[in-house]
Amino acid sequence: MAASADRSGTGRAGKTWPELLGLAFGAIYLLIGIIGFFITGFDNFFGNEAAPGVHHADENLLGFMINPMHNVVHILIGAAGLALSRTLAGARTYGWLLAVGYGAAFVYGLIAVGKDWDFLNLNAADNVLHILTAIVGLVIALGPVRDHVDTRRTV
Q1: Which one has a higher pLDDT value, 46 or 146?
Q2: Of 68, 126, 127, 150, which cross-links 45 as Cys (Cβ 3.0–4.6 Å)?
Q3: For residues 71 and 36, is the Cβ–Cβ distance under 8 A?
């Protein structure tokens, strides 16, 4: 009698969709963090466009304001996604980290955008991305995964 565990709900054993989504988001955020350093370099690590006498409006990636500190955060979030999303439990943990971390970043951004103390150099586009990432984190953390065992008998 053969039984195969189907963790993905697709009829085959393998990665679950939360694991795949966590891996994808981890890879994307890691790549964004690395690319960001090609734009910002390593100078003015906590710089922002609102600081008096400092103008960094050209340091953005696809309309999202960045600085070296922001790049480090993206690299850490990306690496965590790649490391944690190898298992379903790890992917769920990563989802919670995204939900809580990016939810907090969204609230921080609502208060900090345009202020000289905004050490992440955020803008309105960043805030939209942060709340969307927090929602994706909740989906990864709470989304249903069907556990199915094939009980058909083989002859």
Answers
A1: 146
A2: 68
A3: yes
pTM: 0.77
Task: Evaluate whether 69 touches 48 at the Cβ level (below 8 Å).
Answer: no
Parent domain of 122: 5-149
Which residue did the predictor score with more confidence, 148 or 130? 130
Cα dihedral 116, 48, 72, 39 in deg (nearest 10): 180
In a domain, 75, yes or no: yes
Tell me whether residue 52 is in a domain.
yes
The identity of residue 75, as a single letter, is I
Segment 84-126, tens digit of pLDDT: 999 999 999 999 999 999 999 999 999 988 888 877 778 888 8
Strand 148-149 and strand 64-65: the pairing is unpaired
Give dist(CA 55, CA 130) in Å, integer: 24
What is d(CA 66, CA 20) in angstroms, rounded to the nearest whole number?
27
Q: Is residue 155 part of a domain?
A: no
DSSP 8-state assignment for residue 67: -
pLDDT at 7: 47
Give the H/E segment covering residue 38.
helix 17-40
